[in-house]
Specification:
- This protein is mainly alpha-helical.
- Helices cover about 65% and strands about 0% of the residues.
- The chain contains 4 helices and no strands.
- Helix 2 packs parallel to helix 4.
């Protein structure tokens, strides 16, 4: 994916909506489904922290992981948005 597409506001807006839908759906599923989505969201959060620059996106991802039961810390404790998770 090209860098300008990744950083486009529309990309992150759509991603936020998709995360909300996926987390809502996974809450009614078993632990295997929730765990797989939490792992995906953890990886996505790392990517978003380095590329989006949008605190809202980071918070939505972190909140989704929390709802799924994932308490893993992501990112450096002194980096951008370090107080969102």
């Amino acid at each position: 994916m090209r860098q300008d597409i990744i950083q486009a506001p529309d990309f992150w807006d759509e991603l936020e909506r998709n995360i909300t839908v996926k987390v809502d759906a996974a809450l009614g599923k078993g632990q295997t489904t929730r765990s797989a989505l939490a792992t995906y969201l953890r990886d996505l959060e790392i990517k978003a922290r380095s590329e989006s620059g949008r605190r809202q996106t980071i918070q939505i991802i972190a909140s989704g992981r929390s709802l799924l039961g994932d308490r893993t810390r992501v990112g450096p404790s002194d980096g951008p948005f370090s107080r969102t998770s």
